[in-house]
Amino acid sequence: MIIDTTEVQAINSFYRSESLKEVYGLIWLFVPILTLILGITIGVLVIVWLEREISAAIQQRIGPEYSGPMGILQALADGIKLLFKEDLLPSRGDIGLFSVGPSIAVISILLSYLVIPFGYRLVLADLSIGVFLWIAISSISPIGLLMSGYGSNNKYSFSGGLRAAAQSISYEIPLTLCVLSISLLSNSLSTVDIVEAQSKYGFWGWNLWRQPIGFIVFLISSLAECERLPFDLPEAEEELVAGYQTEYSGIKYGLFYVASYLNLLVSSLFVAVLYLGGWNFSIPYIFIPELFRIKKMAGVFAMTISIFITLVKAYLFLFIPITTRWTLPRMRMDQLLNLGWKFLLPISLGNLLLTTSSQLVSL
């Protein structure tokens, strides 16, 4: 059988075009993920700079001002310094657990950004159980801290890891009950649906006004989850022995602080999504129905506006944990556990029962 050369060329060009389509498909599959990671990295650097500037203003001193304009590159300089520092390993520790622990702490928090919507279609995974996926993934982070403390073969590090696990368990339950109350109000576990449910009445439709008790409990629980003052018992940076990261140095030491700021940013974004209306413009349309024609905007400009509104709400909320750090003294471990189990858990459970009753009455 004789095959025409033109047919061979056509077949080859077809296979070549199909392979190019597959390559382009793989590239475009990773573009949103890499864009999100780049945005998260920039967001963490901005948080570090904001915390240093606000802390300096509260204490009436000068903050970072030499690295870049207004000291904006100081956090980047600190990260580069930690990257090139010597990575020391404990001679009698478990090297495997010691090395994997910081990575688990960071990766588990990074996965939480998959379900955060920055706009109507600006979400990597619009899942029907989005908020529960966030709670499940965030519960993995204390395991990494416990592995780090145990792998260090240091009693102070191990006790710090145990304190981190105990603190996370104590405050994970009230936080979950508050999220469940929001899901009942919105009739959905999807983060996109929760934002859309708040968009009916603009500013007055926020869950902040419908769930004020849940908002306060969520705020306290998120501060404890992020190990921020007055709940920074596991790492206690002002003490001589600093918890589960005592034996760490170099970039592994820096990963713990990256995980802390990543967790702080994701908590602020979830506050904006669950309680502050997400990406929606917050002026009630019953008063100004055609302002800027928000509903009719499309394309890049609409995406930019939605991302900007979400980030503004999240960063405005960040002033609360930053100022709390320099306002309240650290609690003792027994006070921390008592607050979680004896106060926040009953309050959040009562809030859930009230929300369930109101939803049943409205049916």
TrEMBL record:
PROSITE patterns, per the entry: COMPLEX1_ND1_1 (PS00667), COMPLEX1_ND1_2 (PS00668)
Superkingdom of origin: Eukaryota
Biological process (GO), any one: aerobic respiration
GO cellular component terms listed in the entry, alphabetical order: chloroplast thylakoid membrane; plasma membrane
EC primary class: translocase
Transmembrane stretches, start-end: 26-50, 95-116, 122-147, 255-277, 297-322, 343-361
Catalysis performed (reactions): a plastoquinone + NADPH + (n+1) H(+)(in) = a plastoquinol + NADP(+) + n H(+)(out); a plastoquinone + NADH + (n+1) H(+)(in) = a plastoquinol + NAD(+) + n H(+)(out)
Alphabetical keyword list: Chloroplast, Membrane, NAD, NADP, Plastid, Plastoquinone, Quinone, Thylakoid, Translocase, Transmembrane, Transmembrane helix
Subcellular locations according to the entry: Cell membrane; Membrane; Plastid, Chloroplast thylakoid membrane
Assigned EC number: 7.1.1.-
Membrane topology field: Multi-pass membrane protein
Biological role: NDH shuttles electrons from NAD(P)H:plastoquinone, via FMN and iron-sulfur (Fe-S) centers, to quinones in the photosynthetic chain and possibly in a chloroplast respiratory chain. The immediate electron acceptor for the enzyme in this species is believed to be plastoquinone. Couples the redox reaction to proton translocation, and thus conserves the redox energy in a proton gradient.
Similarity annotation: Belongs to the complex I subunit 1 family.
Record text on subunit structure and interactions: NDH is composed of at least 16 different subunits, 5 of which are encoded in the nucleus.
Record-given protein name: NAD(P)H-quinone oxidoreductase subunit 1, chloroplastic
Organism name: Aletris megalantha
Lineage: Eukaryota, Viridiplantae, Streptophyta, Embryophyta, Tracheophyta
